[in-house]
């Protein structure tokens, strides 16, 4: 169905995309999602206002694909809410998503109280069920999506595409069968932390098999907060691009989830995607600090390897100028002031996420022709 949707809404690629590297295979890549014509704008005399107007016009054509939102967890504590009408208790209701020109968002299923084993599996299933129910109850503003084609389709219908994930790796219960079941239920991103097979020493044999199975089914690997040995081994093993859902530049701000330059460069060579969080703790207290991180990641990893991660509704403090999802145009205006051209902004906000989704899909398509579902267990490989 996603392929049909890609055929229904074809358009030219956004920015420069390396089709030769798709999933590290030689199959062609389909065309990018449909692009809405940008809004017209008139320059004004105020030099500070003109970049903001340009930013809104660019985002009308290339909206934000937000790499991390804690909204499902934030909604658990509310007795009642209406995201379509507006909800002051959260950062990301539908009106503010639209004002900020957000076209797609990844909803985190991470649970601070999930624990491990069967408890983590059950808690993740409950959170996934809640997230689906929230989208279904707000179907005039939100739409579930699992592929690049479905994201494009949601956007063409004027809705914000919601992708489910990341979830913590503990949600698998060390079972590849559970991994496949979670994918069937809609989970699309898994963070490789908090488990014995992806720890401080790197991936175990079972961990490598888990990555290969994620590639086979189209589950995207998230490496934020993973150890350096795990990151390096995943970049070697994975045939599909990886995400860093909440990672900025450690050279500018020391934080355990931020990446040193050598890992940023390795991620860039592997065509991974580093999504810079809009938080004071990781990126700094001002919009200029966030822009500094985006500049740095673009320089070290490349323009095709940098994205945005609002991390709204996670309890994190945000720069004053970026208090909620309606504020994305302020960040894009700052980048335009710094000389980013529109093609680079288009990759940052939309094109790079679409590339990762497409490549994950096509890598899975090829892998499924080559190998059956893995029946390996952690006892077989690591016992």
Write the layout of secondary structure elements.
Blueprint: H1 2-8, H2 49-61, E1 64-69, H3 71-75, H4 94-99, E2 102-107, H5 117-137, E3 142-144, H6 148-156, E4 160-164, E5 167-168, H7 176-185, E6 189-191, E7 198-199, E8 202-203, H8 205-217, E9 220-222, H9 228-237, E10 243-244, H10 261-269, E11 273-277, H11 280-283, H12 287-301, E12 306-309, H13 328-337, H14 342-370, H15 378-382
Parallel strand pairs: 1-2, 2-4, 3-4, 5-6, 6-9, 10-11, 11-12
Antiparallel strand pairs: 7-8
Bin the strand percentage.
5-15%
Given helix and strand content, the structural type is alpha/beta
- CATH topology: the name is TIM Barrel
Give the C-level CATH assignment: Alpha Beta
> What is the tally of beta strands?
12
Largest sheet: 4 strands, parallel
Number of domains: 1
How are the strands of the biggest sheet laid out side by side? 1-2-4-3
What Rg do the Cα atoms give?
A: 19 Å
- Shape category: globular
Task: Please mark out the parts with pLDDT under 50 across 5 or more consecutive residues, or reply none.
Answer: 1-46
Number of helices: 15
Q: What is the CATH architecture assignment?
A: Alpha-Beta Barrel
InterPro entries: Metal_Hydrolase, Pept_M19
Organism: Streptomyces pimonensis
Protein name: Dipeptidase
